[in-house]
């Protein structure tokens, strides 16, 4: 095994022996005569160690950091607190054709990536109410997980969260049912899952875990099916957790917008409706100057666009360019993502519930009944209360009268 020796001589004296020791062992020698020279001279060893990477590797090695706190949230709340981030860096190597190859490391390029943006790549509505996704790095540390909870309101939020959240292990947020040393089966399956995700293997497993609910006041035991696979060109593995029995059936309930007789925005009049705040129906890609004050305003904007000529559904997010592309392309500020299935399901819900606020004393008008004669299954839940004589339905909101 090759051992390189790097030597540093501090002071004004010269020592040929120290210099010769470094040069004969493929290292580096530097003489430091002042405090100003320390940083520049000491870090010269990086260029030496980078030479094999420049000479023999075609692809740039990409490095991802553990999760940390930084940046601002893109949520619609007014607090705009720090959010979880990860950073990605890659070296810039000198690949110019010289008569004598220099093999220099020119520098480092990097950017910060919001974990919130990574979570959008796994639509939660496709996982079901109790299903969730999570990502683990090659050290078993969690990038995001439903139980990786930030601490808003803490005066030392960033200071206390940053070091702690860099080392949260998967075994600390997935709590396997454990009945003592005599029954270690579930815990060993959890550790096997962790090891497989660290090794970036693909597979699935099932075991029981403890799930908290009701603001962590109660705990239930539930069996989960876990599916996991590595994410290419990253140190991360993606995991999906689905309760046992999930995924056997799929409800297909959509209203084709282009076949709609009337403008679908007519179903979204007024302000007595809301969409799921964490689901991405449609959005412009990074770099767009368009801004919306609420998720509902953004959905209405795209619903209006669907009625214009030339509209195209962009239900797949664009993939990043491969390393073979020599020139970087300028991002299109008007490019967008729009989930056709989710949006058309929302339109169907709006169509079916559109007659609620038009209901008379004994029922819907005849024309409303005709309009709402669809193959959908509707269930209205009326809650009795000693303080209310009856319930009237106003849009999707129940109000006492």
From TrEMBL:
Top-level taxon in the UniProt lineage: Eukaryota
Query: According to the UniProt entry, where is the signal peptide?
Result: none
Q: Which InterPro entries match?
A: Ca_channel_alpha-2/delta
Show the GO cellular component annotation of the record: voltage-gated calcium channel complex
A single Gene Ontology MF term assigned here is: voltage-gated calcium channel activity
**Can you name this protein?**
Voltage-dependent calcium channel subunit alpha-2/delta-4 isoform X4
What's the gene?
LOC107265723
């Amino acid at each position: 095994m090759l051992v390189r020796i790097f030597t540093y001589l501090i002071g004004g004296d010269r020592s040929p022996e120290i210099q010769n020791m470094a040069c004969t062992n493929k290292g580096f020698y530097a003489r430091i005569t002042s405090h100003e020279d320390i940083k520049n001279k000491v870090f010269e060893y990086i260029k030496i160690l980078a030479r094999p990477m420049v000479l023999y590797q075609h692809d740039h090695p990409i490095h991802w950091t553990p999760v940390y706190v930084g940046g601002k949230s893109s949520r619609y709340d007014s607090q705009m607190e720090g959010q979880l981030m990860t950073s990605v860096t890659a070296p810039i190597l000198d690949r110019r054709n010289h008569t004598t190859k220099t093999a220099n490391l020119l520098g480092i390029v990097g950017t910060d990536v919001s974990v919130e943006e990574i979570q959008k790549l796994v639509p939660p509505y496709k996982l079901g109410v109790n299903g969730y996704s999570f990502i683990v790095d090659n050290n078993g540390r969690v990038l995001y997980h439903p139980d990786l909870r930030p601490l808003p309101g803490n005066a030392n939020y960033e200071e206390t969260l940053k070091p702690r959240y860099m080392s949260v292990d998967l075994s600390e947020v997935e709590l396997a049912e454990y009945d003592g040393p005599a029954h270690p089966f579930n815990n060993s399956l959890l550790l096997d899952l962790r090891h497989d995700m660290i090794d970036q293997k693909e597979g699935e497993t099932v075991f029981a875990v403890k799930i908290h609910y009701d603001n962590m006041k109660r705990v239930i035991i539930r069996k989960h099916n876990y599916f996991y696979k590595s994410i290419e060109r990253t140190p991360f593995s993606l995991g999906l957790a689905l309760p046992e029995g999930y995924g056997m059936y799929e409800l297909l309930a959509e209203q084709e917008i282009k076949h709609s007789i009337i403008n679908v925005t007519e179903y979204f009049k007024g302000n007595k409706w809301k969409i799921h705040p964490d689901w991405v129906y449609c959005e412009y890609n990074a770099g767009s100057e368009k801004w919306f004050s609420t998720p509902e305003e953004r959905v209405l904007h795209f619903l209006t666009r669907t009625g214009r000529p030339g509209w195209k559904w962009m239900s797949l997010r664009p993939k990043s360019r491969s390393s073979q592309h020599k020139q970087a392309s300028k991002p299109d500020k008007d490019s967008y993502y729009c989930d056709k299935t989710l949006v058309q399901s929302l339109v169907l819900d709006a169509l079916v519930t559109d007659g609620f606020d038009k209901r008379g004393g004994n029922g819907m008008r005849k024309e409303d009944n005709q309009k709402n004669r669809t193959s959908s299954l509707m269930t209205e839940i009326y809650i009795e209360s000693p303080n209310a004589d009856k319930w009237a339905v106003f849009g999707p909101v129940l109000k006492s009268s």
